[in-house]
Amino acid sequence: MLEKKQKLDEEQTIHPLYSRNSFDMKKRSPLNVFPEEPMNPDTAYHIVHDFAMLDGNARLNLATFGTTWMDDYANRLYSESYDKNAIDKDEYPETAKIEMKCWKMLADLWNCEDPEHTIGCSAVGSSEACMLGALALKRKWAEKRKAEGKPADRPNLVISAAEQVVWLKFANYFDVEIRRVPISLDHKCLDGYKLEDYVDENTIGVVAILGVTYTGMYEPVKMISEKLDEIQNKTGLDIKIHVDAATGGFVTPFLYPELEWDFRVPRVVSINASGHKYGMVYQSVAWTVWRDATQLPESLVFHVSYLGGDMPTFTLNFSKPGAQILLQYYNFLRLGFNGYKDILVALREVAQHLADEIGKMPEFELWNNPTDSPVFAWMLKKDVQRNWTLFDLEDRLRMKGWQVPAYPMPEDLTSITVQRIVVREGLTMDLANELLLDIRKQVEFLEKQKG
Q: What would be one Gene Ontology cellular-component term for the protein (predicted)?
């Protein structure tokens, strides 16, 4: 340790400003090497606090879909339950019961025929939830192929090219060919167009996205299903759908209950949604629900006993926080259907106001309106040659504390750059108007700059 300490220079050490005694004032702690001696808790707290203080303001982060605000009662409940490990159902049986209540309530919300006798689970975010749904598709396909005496070594999954990166991870990690259907100006999301060119006997399923990450747009699940009906009539291929409703699963039931995207569509066998997005719970919790128990093969479920009792488990993670599960149930009780609806109506109004005002600006053209989820994107008009881009506007807004991301669209449209706003609870109409003032001011500044 002495030799390591001698190698530390000024740039590799922390100089505490806060201390209770002269000992902490005199010593330095290494930045990237495990410290040899303990430190007073108030000093350690202030060091970490000051580093974290340099992060962005979560309320002004319009890039993330994640919840950044909950009420005082939720915060109290969080502080009372952050030590619960949801995987230990023997130690925390009430948390386990509440987890089951949550996914059954979601099964009912998503129009499952028999919510009491279906199956579901929580997950640590929608990345895990997506993978659980996809793993069930893969295993069901493989078991069917083997029962028919056919090879099951070349599975593929069909999805829009505007997918979230988790689907590429799934394909990579679990040896599944990903078949990405390109989007275009005429087909801005997967809508069934030329779907027959991408599916075959090795297709484990089609993923429909209810809230594309790039723009917030919904892919028309029923239209995709009808296209698969046509394909089955011609080829005999019976291909199922998993709905990645990470965003829309907690929006559509309240704003557009008549839209058929869920278990009302016969080909939909599983759905995932993020509780920490429009479920309005702190990170990180998500949910996967299957149409019925037969859609989750028993061969994927493990039974463990070393925490006490027999515990069936279907997760990629093992330990996971129980607090967020309790917070999800709190929101279900606290808000109810009409409470969620009221909040989402308000968010949609803020999003539409922002979209209307940005759409009026002569420099911009909307990619989409926030008529699906409270999310929309825009691009620069091509009628004038400008010496600035949306990346420049992103940088200028960041100087004011706003995080409004700009990025290129996916393959076949990479020449188009869009900028996106996600409206979440906490972005009031007043804050939205402040954002509009800053956008106008920064655009005016950029327009005056010479190349």
A: cytosol
Q: What gap in Å lies between CA 134 and CA 140, rounded to an integer?
A: 10
Identical topology for domains 72-332 and 340-448: no
**Which tens digit of pLDDT belongs to each residue from 322-346?**
899 999 999 999 999 999 999 999 9
d(CA 300, CA 296): 7
CATH of domain 340-448: 3.90.1150.160
CATH architecture of 72-332: 3-Layer(aba) Sandwich (3.40)
pTM: 0.90
